[in-house]
Amino acid sequence: MAKAFTTSRWLRKYGSKLGHQVFIRVRMNNGFETEIPVYDYVNNDKLPISVKKEHWNKGYITGGAYHIPIRDINLLLAKVERFVKSAIVELIEKNIRITRENILKLTYINEDNAIEDERKITSGEVIVNEDGGAFASHEEFIEFIIESEDPKFDKLKKSMGLYNKQYILDYWDDFIREYAPDSYNTPRYAIEEYIKNTQDNCNVTNFSSEWLERFFKHIIKEGYSFRKDGTNRKPYTITTVTKYLKHLKAFGDFLFVEKKILNNQDYKRFDLKKKTKKQSLIKYHPEPYINTHALYKKEFDWFYYFQFEDKKLDRARDMFIVQTWLGGLRQVDFYKLSKENLHKDSHGFYRIWFEQQKTDGEVINVINQDYLIPIFNKYAGGFPEFFEVHDYNDLLKKAAVESGLNRKLRFRYEYANANEATEEWLPIHQMISNSWARNCAVSILCELGYPEYRIAKFTGHKDLEMINHYKKIHPKEVDSMIGEVKPQRVREL
Question: Residue 318 CA to chain centroid, in angstroms?
Answer without folding.
Answer: 19
